[in-house]
Amino acid sequence: MWHWAAAASSLVIVIFLLVSRLRRRHPETHYDWGNIDLGDLSFPSGFLWGTATAAHQIEGGLTNNWSDFEEDRGLERSGAACEHWTLWRDDFQLLSDLGVGSYRFSVEWSRLEPEPGSWDEGEMRVYSDMVDDLVSRGIRPMVTLHHFSHPTWWEERGGFADRRNLPDFLSYCERVFDELSDRVEYWCTINEPTVCSAMGYTLGQFPPGKRGIRLTMRVMRNLMRGHAMVYRSLKGRRPECQLGVAKNVTLFDPASRWSPVDWLVARILDWLWNGSWRKGMTTGRMLGSRIPGAKDSLDFVGLNYYTHFLTGLFLPTATKELQFAKREHEVATEFGYPMYAEGFRRAIDFVSELGVPIEITENGVADAEDTLRPEHIRRHLWVVSEAIKEGHDIRSYHHWSLMDNFEWAEGYSMRFGLHAVDFRTQERTLRKSGEFYRDLIS
Ligand code: GCO
Q1: Is the CB of 400 inside a 6 Å radius of any atom of ligand 1?
Q2: How far, in Å, CA of 293 to CA of 224, rounded?
């Protein structure tokens, strides 16, 4: 009897000490925003202000793994999207009117290689014209090679789930690079590898809509293999180009900071989402496998930051919509997750460990009425400004997004734009927050 009592109390003490240590090591910072002067901003000269978009979300008229998924699942169809494929010159005028110095966009593989091995020169020319136009406006183009969408034929072969498909991906990237790298210096190989693998292969809310942990891990490794192959090849072709990944850093905090279970879930998810990826980039090993060429395969790291997740034992994995918890004092954004600008700093600290310059490749909020976005921008930029003052090497900030667009599984309901888009008329209207961003840039 005594033995049991002694063992149980020792266990309680050990868990208590462990949790106390976790609480110290992983503080969940919260600021008293009322006492912060958000106007106190300073950015170095040469800092680039920008906006970001992605092909499938704005171009319209695409047939790819995503449009197939929309159809199969009965989701809202991306359809004509923002008709950017025909309106891109007008949209680039919006960039000039905002005064941005950088624009991040993605190139659509399914346009360029609709069938394996058949290359569409005409479509390629449009991207080339886009680049010329941006350059003539004094706007730095930053090109993403894979932003969630790829050709149907490649998905049918298994996409990133099968490493034998990676050479197809590589040759598409090389071809685009050969066409544009005389004018495009900054490249993101893959957008949000972990979102791609978790949403597509664990939660099943993105194509191909599968659900398997081992499968997810395989895809994670293949995404890193794909990045590494592309990095090595393109760097060899034109060493002066700067290549990186746009990494979504989502923070995982235990719902209850005294709950060992909540901590366990938080630390595991943080490892799978963030830690294992950073380890792969620094050591060339990810989730037990060697990833050839991955070590030191970043010239910069692209950071996409949105929020933190509060974890507990019962995480939603089967529901169509994710349920998000938030702290009592936090404001929920339209997407459901909280606005947590403090986490931006934690994410910056996290990627800084990679030892390469940081480009903020995405940050923004869904807010149709534009009531929260101005404050969202102010807080997040203040955090960036402070991080720079304290020595972080951050080179740019790209607001997500230039205009409302097709928000994946959420369809057109989530409005992230500095410009509102009327999808019946394709009219773009600058929101108040867009005016604010423009004035700030100038
Ligand atoms: C992603 C993307 C963007 C989103 C944006 C808003 O994270 O899914 O990179 O395509 O539209 O993050 O959710």
Answers
A1: yes
A2: 9
